[in-house]
Amino acid sequence: MNESERIGLEAKLRTAAPPEWNGPDLVIHGCRPVAGEWATDWLGAIDKLWRDWRRRRIADDAFEGAREALSSLHRRVWDEAEDHGPLLPQLGGILAEARRHPPAVRQIPPLPVGQVDVAEVMDLIRRIVSGSARPEVIVPATGWKHLSHGLGEFIVDGWSIQAFKRNFGMKYVQEARSPDGRTGDYEAFAAHEGNPFSLLEDDEQDGICEILENP
């Protein structure tokens, strides 16, 4: 964009701005768009970091350090318009370093009577992904794809599973009820191994999400 084009664009932006904003203090800064390659790889690295942290494969302090390191790289590309190419290899290095710091082994309390085990719910989801069990969505009645930022429910092999969905698929299991009446919820799972959905591998998580969205 040359200087004449920049001035013309700024004039259009000032015309479109609300009157209360369009005063002498309004300053318009141009910024080079972030390359699609960088956006894709950076978002992928952030996603992998969160998934491994939820699987309790990365200690909390290592997770926070990696998240800040990734954010710092993004600021260099976004705010300072630095060339993203030389920074791409650092994304994998940050993840590798975080994974070298697993959390300390912790004592998992005994499972109370009447409570569903995390492994049982993981096994149920894996059976759905493998095709040996088929879920039936009952909430919402219009189907899982019509749910946004809320709890949905499906039944499978006598189990009832409530799960939270944000934009696509599933984010976590909120509650599970077994055929024999035992239950487990978000807090109970967190007190043991972790949330059944979060502990699954990437392909398993993606598989159950795709099945729920497209039965």
Write structural notes for this entry.
The chain has a five-stranded antiparallel sheet. Helix 2 packs antiparallel against helix 3. The protein folds into two domains: about 100 residues; about 100 residues, no CATH class. Helix content is about 45%, strand content about 15%. The N and C termini lie far apart (about 50 Å). It is of the alpha+beta class and about 220 residues long. The protein is built from seven helices and five strands, in the order H-H-H-H-H-E-E-E-E-E-H-H. The model has no long low-confidence stretch (mean pLDDT about 90).
Short summary of the structure?
It is built from 7 helices and 5 strands. It is α+β, with helices and mostly antiparallel strands.
Give me the secondary-structure topology.
Blueprint: H1 3-16, H2 36-54, H3 60-78, H4 88-99, H5 118-130, E1 136-139, E2 150-156, E3 159-165, E4 172-177, E5 183-185, H6 186-191, H7 202-213
Shape category = extended
What is the tally of beta strands? 5
Oligomer: single chain
Mean pLDDT: 89
**Distance N terminus to C terminus?**
48 Å
- What is the helix fraction of residues, given as a range? 40-55%
Strand residue content: 5-15%
Strand arrangement in the largest pleated sheet: 1-2-3-4-5
In the predicted model, the low-confidence regions spanning at least 5 consecutive residues are none
Main beta sheet strand tally, sense and closure: 5 strands, antiparallel
Kindly give the count of domains. Answer: 2
Return Rg in Å: 23 Å
- Count of helical regions: 7
Structural classification: alpha+beta
SSE order: HHHHHEEEEEHH
